[in-house]
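Re: the 160-residue chain
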Amino acid sequence: MTKKKPGTPSSTIALNKKAKHEYHIEERFEAGLVLLGWEVKSLRAGKGQLTDAYVLLKDGEAWLLGSHIQPLSTASTHVIADPTRTRKLLLHEKEIAKLIGKVNQTGHTCVPLALYWKKNKVKCEIALVKGKKQFDKRATEKERDWNRQKQRIIREANVS
């Protein structure tokens, strides 16, 4: 395996942190993304966002809606750039059929979790999720706080 060179940037472009808070993640998929040239240049510069983005499954195809890729002023001078255009996700037919079957069940939806580089391609990690109730969100937060507190106690005990 090739080791990462020191000083190379992370392969992650954008994360959807809100999705992990709002939903129970049941299954993850890796999808390719159909992009224009100016979008790739903007993503190389780290100008992508996934907040409030979601996946629409329609006519046996998957589409990424609501993602925002800010156009660079130098890259898209001759093209009228739409930063929130609908982008096609590339998945296998079996994966799309599985997603459509699960989304048609009550409470399930499909959201993007991350945009990242895989070699020279942009990939989108999408997940099949089920919405959390308010008490689930509070329980998750309590557990996270308790784990942080435990780490502090252990660290202080080891220092002394």
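The chain is about 30% helix and 35% strand.
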